[in-house]
Amino acid sequence: MRADVITIFPDYFAPLELSLVGKARAMGVLDLQVHDLRTWTSDVHRTVDDTPYGGGPGMVMRPEPWGQALEAVGDGTLIVPSPVGKPFTQADAYEIAGLDHLIFACGRYEGIDQRVIDEAAARMPVREISLGDYVLFGGEVAVIVIMEAVTRLLPGVLGNASSLDEESHAAGLLEAPVYTKPASWRDREVPEILRSGDHGKIARWRRDQSLLRTAARRPDMMASYPRESLDKADRKALDEGGFRITPPAVAE
Ligand code: JE8
Questions:
Q1: Residue pLDDT, tens place only, 104-157
Q2: Among 12, 132, 219, 247, which is least packed by CB within 10 angstroms?
Q3: Which residues line ligand 1 (CB under 6 A)?
Q4: DSSP for the chain?
Q5: Nearest C-alpha to atom 21 of ligand 1 is from which residue?
């Protein structure tokens, strides 16, 4: 995967040398290039913003530098972090991980002149993505989050690929709690079943915990979870946890 990031704060992306993204780059699975938008300015002050047409607070990012920057990095899929974008999900991360060339446009100020996005959309796919319903200073933090969520899905990056199957949001449920040694810590014990060595019972316990956590913390996810994927034991765990599953199970 090739990824080009265009930003007025290239130093923001130094952390992407570390951890799994750094590993993906070293493995050759990810070719990440960070570009300073000011490279494509032509005035002595390297100006990237101007006052908004129609008035209003703040400044807007000028189209000219963006137009030249996007031409320079070539076509791919343009990803524009924005508060008006589609909320980013694990499903989006999987889709984006399958793409060959990502171009991230990091806006600042009050955003990028809309004509930049419209003009790019005439020649390549554009995805406007939001991290959530709150307002950031710009797109850089969102790109770091998106890059981490996507990079960990690239082949070979995660040492233990099986962990992708069970993690939160991958299977449509939140994952079960995790424990490690010591067995007793500050008078708190690891659940006995996890130390039983009975893999069938351990799997059942983890499934029950995932269901109960999801029902308690993310009723929206539980509502979307396919009912046909809930077996009798699942329904029993939810029922015993005080969660009523609709529609009710058909007579089994
Ligand atoms: C941004 C952003 C994501 C999210 C993303 C890019 C570029 C007051 N104004 C501030 C309102 C419009 C946006 C201005 C700041 N800004 C925010 C985000 C985002 N992805 N989930 N929240 N905010 C830019 C400029």
A1: 999 999 999 999 999 999 999 999 999 999 999 999 999 999 999 999 999 999
A2: 247
A3: 81-83, 85, 107-108, 110-111, 129-132, 134-139, 142
A4: -EEEEEES-GGGGGGGGSHHHHHHHHHTS-EEEEEEGGGG--STT---EEPPTT--SS-EE-HHHHHHHHHHH-SSEEEEEEEEEEEP-HHHHHHHHT-SEEEEE---TT-B-HHHHHHHHTTS-EEEEESSSS--SSSHHHHHHHHHHHHTTSTTTSS-TTHHHHSTTTSSSPPPP---S-SEETTEEPPGGGGS--HHHHHHHHHHHHHHHHHHH-HHHHHHS-GGG--HHHHHHHHHTT---SSPPPP-
A5: 131
